[in-house]
Amino acid sequence: MQHDRIVLNRRALRLRLLAGTAAILLGPWATISAAHARTVQPTPPPVAGPDGLPPRAAYFDADILSRDGDVVTADSYPGSRVLARFQQHTLRAGKVTYDLAQGLASASGNAQLVDPDGNVVFANLLELNSDLQTGVAVDFATRMTNGASLMAATAVRRSETVNELNYAIFTPCPVCNADGSPRTPTISIQAEKVVQDEDLRAILYRNAVFKVGGVPVFYLPVFAHPDPTVERASGFLVPLINYDQGRGLSYEQPYLIVVSPSEDWLISPQINSDVAPLLNAQWRRRFANGTVVARGGYTYARNFGDFDLDGDGIDDTPFPLAEEHRSYLLAHGRFDLNGPWRWGFTAERTSDKTLFDRYDVSSPYQDNGLYYGDQRRLISQVYAEHQTRRSYLSIAAFSLQSLRVAAASQDAPGLNIFENDNSLPVVAPLINARWEPSEHLFGGRLRLQGSSVALFRDAYVGGPVLRPQLIPTGSILGLPGVDSRRISGQAEWRRVITSAAGLRWEPFVDVRTDLYSVSDLPPMLGVDTATITRGRATAGLDVSYPLIRRFADGSDLVLEPVGQLSLSTDADLDPRIPNEDSQTLELDESSLFRVDRFPGQDLYEGGLRLTAGTRATLNWAGGRQASLFIGRSLRLDEEPAFLVPVPDAPAQLYDPTGLAEKSSAWVVQGSFTPSDRIRGWGHATVDSSGSIRRAELTVDGRWGRRNQGSLTYIVDRSDPLRRLNPYPNPFDPAGPPIQQSLNRNYEFVQLAVQQFVRGNWGVTATGIVDLERDLITRSEVGLLFDDDCFRFEVGFRRDNTRVRPSGPSEGVYVRLNLATFGGSGYGQGDRRW
What's the number of CA atoms in the CB half-sphere (13 Å) around residue 481? Predict the structure, then answer.
């Protein structure tokens, strides 16, 4: 009964106090309204804020409440605390005093203040002014929304933007375990005085001591870092430290300069013990409708690498390795204009084909534009796009720079021969367009497409660009590259009909025409230029009939048989048309049923074709799933035009597409997720004899809370011939030739594992094995510490790729990522942007 009386008394006091507070705070508005009642309408009361309180009002919930004039005192019994709310802040403490007239508040006894942003302040004694702009706290501690903590013996809020703390500790790491017990933070900074200046957006330290696991490791008399609530601020970032046999010990120190909320610079010099330094810089700028990122590097240094061809310890280069200006530029921009238009560009070039490898420039090959230069190819392009709900138009022009090895020197990697840039085309322009009318035609959808391209190439290139009939049998010295221009138009009509039984019929008609202009043809044809026209008409039918069966345990099985019958006019594959855009073909579940299975326009199929396949999908409890697709295509006649010559034996032909014979390769594709910790995906094309042409399998797994691993297997056997081609050594024409591998077959296994052994300590390992050459191309083994606020890796790595001019490289690497302070890497996805 006594408890009930206390509750009733508390409720009555709470209501009276709130009413009294509102009367005092709203009294001036009430007086003004009464004085003008005869001439104006009464002013409505102030609108309540998010916490339900009018401005300047306060709410209390306490065991004991008393009021002396304008001063309200709220106290609590042992074991409970006072709750107060004002100005969208929540305050809990053993005792709270609040001056209604002046807005001053004080709290003592395990005080806790929560601001509107969720930041929490703890103190034994807390005093605040009316606007919460200044105040004093004893035994102060605060936990920010990002998890960082700041503690001090005393704290004084000097102004709206300056906080001063004495004998303070800052840490971005948790200070309590999951059960609430205290925990020594992994990293922390202890200082005699700490000043948080919100105008400078920085935290300043005096006599700062850095601790790791509570052990002092470093001292600075003065130190500063960005406020943890600041997304970006100028200052040093975590350095990059590693060792490379070509450069020696390497130290890279990034420094971020924030010019404005929309612009910054990143200066990152790389200092090397054995070679000249490399200065890296990056500029990023956001505009009202777009973004530009420009990244570059410069050094004035001699070339370095393994040039010892005969193993006598002396470089065999016929030219001096003098110091030269060496640099690179990687820039891109994208702008979304008002309306359906957008445009962009990329500018990617390097002075040395091995500069990225020698200096370990991070992520030089990125997909930043409308077209991608592919691995080890840089692309410079400008493009514009126009897109609406029913139309699309793109216009682009680009050129390429290749960093690929054409002929690898097994004895002296510094003497690798790289792909000739003049053998790559300059494309200007490349236009693609499509349009769909909103009205249906004969109950179906009509799509109109068009494209145009002009390609110019300086150096001669044989197969697979040129058809076998055009490849010269004699010397190719001095032959120009074939230039081509094309205009294509295509119209496609499709209609979907679904029967009452669920059978899906989709008849279609496809009409296409091409106009080519080809110049600089090989002299054996007797003509230098040619104009070629061709066309194709296709009619066909897609049929599918999905079936589903549900089981008593809640699982279900879905079968989706799909078939396509198509009849086209015979393919007119004139051998004078170079194959620029259809050299590679990946048969998979989606491309198998396309009318045009080639990615470009230069090759296409004709004749009568039947394609069939089925997918089975099993779903069961817990989101587990497994699916498998099997299909292939049959054609009435063979298509020998898909065959390409072996580069060093033009009389021998092979089929890289899997479509030249009457029966295509089998397409097998599946995925599986047996639990929420394991998932996998696989794809393979298998020829009629059961041999794998191409295959890829990936399995990802997780065990424990943070242990994870990934295994990938990739194989390509589409070229059945294994061969080596002698490539003349341009540095020593009279000496033995360099053996160039022309076998595009490959077989790789890639493994990445992270395993925690004890607490936050673990090991990590990654590796790529080239099974074709019986070689580990890249590998890393390291020791790992990670407690979710501090990640440190140290280990050993080896790079044995053929493109490295210095040959195999091995050494120690160090990676460091600190919560709040940022990581050791930077780039497009960096949190600082």
Answer: 18
